[in-house]
Hints:
It is a single chain. The chain is of the alpha+beta class. Helix content is 27%, strand content 25%. It has a single domain (9-179), classed as Alpha-Beta Complex (Maf protein). Strand 5 and strand 6 (110-114) form a beta hairpin. It is globular, with a radius of gyration of 17 Å. The relative contact order is 0.19.
Amino acid sequence: xxxxxxxxxxxxxxxxxxxxxxxxxxxxxxxxxxxxxxxxxxxxxxxxxxxxxxxxxxxxxxxxxxxxxxxxxxxxxxxxxxxxxxxxxxxxxxxxxxxxxxxxxxxxxxxxxxxxxxxxxxxxxxxxxxxxxxxxxxxxxxxxxxxxxxxxxxxxxxxxxxxxxxxxxxxxxxxxxxxxxxxxxx
Length: 186
């Protein structure tokens, strides 16, 4: 019995970091189609629920535009405890990064995973904060920093997945892709 061909993969994200992370594990989406959803936090919404909801909503927004495709959407939420930090925040002592991945298969099947990365920053001096804000690197980033850039110099430790902190938990994503029949190079 022949295996069915793998579905066409569509990345529902405008993030060049997510595309780069997928390529790192040997995956090249057939298309990139960013989703436009309201990323506002709902009252009493916890970081985990917020990340999963946004990933789901992004996948659901893009799926109708690509019938028969496998839709991959992700969102990263940076939190300090139960408090969700907004994008372009410029200072933190300890942050939990919760990236969620949601996929919608060609038949409408939905699957999702949550990744976790814990990042501890050194205590930042006012001059360090000012310099980082001036460089502009953290603008538009969850938590206001890019660990793959200059902010790496502030990181005391990272626990969990580096890919999760950058914006796409690669282990969880690879598992989901395999569950939908895509071959992920080992």
